What does this fold into?
Amino acid sequence: MQISYLSTAEIVFILIAAVTLIAAIIALEAKEIVHGALSLGVMFLGIAGLYILLDANYLAMFQISVYIGAVVVLILFTIMIVPREIWLHRPFRITPEVIAGILAAIMLIGSICVLYLSTPAWSLTPSEAPFDWSVRRIAQSIVIEYGIALQILALVLFAGLMGALTLAKVEEKEEETK
Amino acid sequence: MNEAQIIDELRDKFGERIGTPERLRQHRIVVTVEKENLLDLAKFVKDTYDLNYAISVSGIDYPEQNKFVVVYHLCKMSEEGHLPLVLTLKVPVNRQTPRTPSLISIWQSVEWHERETWELFGIEFEGHPKLERLLLHEDWDEEFPNQFPLRKDFLLEDE
Amino acid sequence: MSSMYFSVGPQHPGSGHFRMKITLQGDIILNAEPDPGFVHRSVEKIAETREYLQNVPLIERQCLSDVSSVTLAYAMGIEELLGIEVPPRAQYIRVIMCELSRIMSHLYWLAILGIFVGHSTMFMWGFGDRDILITETAEKIAGARVSYSYIIPGGVRYDLPDGIKEHTMKTLDYFQGRLKEYDAIFFSNPIFKRRTKGVGVLSRSEAIRLGVTGPTLRGSGVRGDIRKDAPYAAYDELDFEIPVYSEGDSYSRSLVRFREMKISSSIIRQAFENLPEGDFKVKTRKKVPEGEVFSRVEAARGELACYLISDGTRKPYRLKMSTPSFRNLPGFSLMKGSMLADMPPIYMSLDYWPLETDR
Amino acid sequence: MNIINIILDFLNLENFISNIPNAEVQELLTIVFVFLRSDLFFKILLFPGIFTILITVAELMWLELKLIAKVQLRVGPQYAGRIGGILQPIADFIKLLFKETIVPEKASKVLFLLVPIMLVTLAATTLTVIPLSETDVISNLDVGLLFTFAILAMFPILALLAGWASNSKFPFIGGIRALFQQVSYEVPLWFSALGVVILAESLNFNSIIKAQSTFWFILLLPLGAFIFLVAVIAETERLPFDIPEAETEIASGWMAEYSGLSFGLIMLSLYIKLYFGAAMFTALFLGGWLGPSILPPAFWFLTKTIIVVLIIMMLRGVLPRFRLADLLYIGWRRLLILSIVNIFLAITVKLVLF
It folds into this structure.
């Protein structure tokens, strides 16, 4: 006598995946833009849940703190500062962007299908020899193995940040002269 | 600058244009002035005696004599404090057409006092930037149209 | 960037019976307009329908934290019209009551200022000491805690009770110790200084131009105090100083009131030391001769002027109270350009009392 | 053998289940009972879970009432409960339970009512990784510290949403202020905790605590401890940083429109957050459950935590509130720089001592 045909991990996966998908759809379709931003947060949370299922706790925690703690907060903040009327009453029209979006979605789904079909063994449970996700291991791989890449990335980010600051500064000065 | 001097000077300067300045008691001088000469007199007392501080603006209703009187109390304020002298300007205003020039251009501090007097007596101050409801509630005009609480013909219930 | 309009009050923990219309841009106050009148009772009109003595309890309702000065201005006006001389003992008792009122009012203000900047201990201490020390002393003298109608035309209502001198001295000793603690916990507090120093600056000339009065004026460096400039009661026989601070910000206005509490207690001590014997009241007539009078006193919040016109009957023809809170109304323009968080300290540094404005 | 097992044995419900004819239902119920009898359920429900937290938080509220009353020369609560009104917070909560929850007109109803529940849930979630002793922890997560920070990062969203959902101006300003404050103090919080991570070489709370068996980290990193404490006070919106709730400016800020049970839940979540902040401070800097073995480790942990909470509460008695601009200035210009200095200090200590 069998109650369920699925393991606990599979049930949890299906639940989280469903929540993530529904949240993603709401995030795109919500009329009230704040609700949309909020469900974006729920979606990120769901993805973090998936990471935890894959034993990637460290990644999951960063997913939450960066995407929810920073990105969603920024989006919400921006939405709330901008007057509400701007967001409302956008009639639906088939524009080139919409067509391009649909095409991109088809291509994405297609490529995922190809990937799925071309991958032989596919399982939801963690692999036999789990990768060492401990913090020490991550630190070593970041600082030692990919040290130079990290440095270059940091430099690029820094340059980008400085550029943004310079641009902002210039605009401010222009406003002052006006 | 004593009180007798001020009275003499005012009499010399304005003569018939103002009522006789009167010394009520120590430190209190009362001058009655028609509204046509009010601004001149106000400017003069402010420039000459440096009476830069308006203490109060009040209205008085005399229904028998068919007039209101707007009363300004002025004094001098220096860094070292008040001068004890208080000069009182009395401006009689016709009760049917209560209008008088506002002194806000000379003393900024009369702004709220004049607004209050306008509201409670219905005396219009020409040149006042903001004659709006101050103390009475917002639907006063609907409940008591053209009635002003401090006029003598506005009777309280127990009178 | 769009601006935001909202009312602070009359249903707001930081407003009293009064409303401020605030326009905010970002965190900066663009415009702050006071809107008084929520407790307007038309005291001046009611006063015209009552007899002179009946008016005493009426007019003291306009400022319940500082009743002595209000009634004193009114009583002085009537005495001047009647041409009577108040006995010196009554003058001294009046001084004692006025200074007690001043301490009471300033303690009230200090407590509210405390809670306005988020210091709940100052709030509790201020109210506790006010109730236990000062109000109780006033009750022993006048028989009531707040609205005692003690100062009447012709003198005071009762003579001082036995042993009040010792009681008051003991109270003041304790109170002056408490003042030191207030200084330690509140006025020397770096956060309090940071929140009030340089906030809501009112320059000397602007203070005179706007016609503000009392500690608000003295916090801007003007030594304007009726007690010294046009002495009444027994103030010319007592030795006291007027605290003046020239910075003109919220902190100096607060310090003026704080120092005044100390000076007030020394005035009370002196008054008890020099208290003459004799009558505490003279007989007055019910009918007041025709005439007009303009009497000024220095109430806790500033100069309070009473303009009284009599037509020779038992009732005043016109009574106008020019109250300090009303005259400090232009001070609300100080909020323009400061941050929203500066609103409570500026508002409290004006020591605005809505009932006094509305009358 | 824990107390739940004893109660279940006493009730003898398994016998009753075995009489149920439907086999599937029987099996399902059996699984439920296995869970009820498990150690995990005991931990979640009783110790160190919901029950312990609620009792601790209620008594913290009472301690605050009494302590502040002492500072302010008052008596404080007296009547509820035998010892000086010790049951007052519970009485307060029951009162709030029976009060009407008023939802403002035109408010976003679902969000408005959801926010308090989410707040309490989040606050309680953080406590799952805090160990009261080596074994008394619901989940001994290897990235426990990161987990708590991740959860902390979600609080400002809820405050902002509470302000937005109320559709009222003061709560909205309060929400924005809460966002500013919590987001900008998260950075010093992370950075000061980083010093501890460097010394302990772990993100797991138990390992961090064990690493302190020779020296408590407050002795090695006093600067980091100070920054952490300040940041915790700011994160929990206690005085002198209760700017989002500033009563006399913006009328209780983002929680202005809440009443009844939802207000009670918000207060509960704030106190749980306070307890949690203090518990984190204890675990990171005060040696957690380490202490003389005369008494159980959980006792040491709770004692230290309560002392930290009392220190935070005492500030309310003596300090007024900061301005928002000052707060941001302190956060970005002072604490951030100091916390970076703290990381260098931690590295130095690490190189010298270990």
Remarks:
- DSSP finds six helices and no strands in chain A.
- The CA atoms of residues 111 and 130 of chain A lie 27 Å apart.
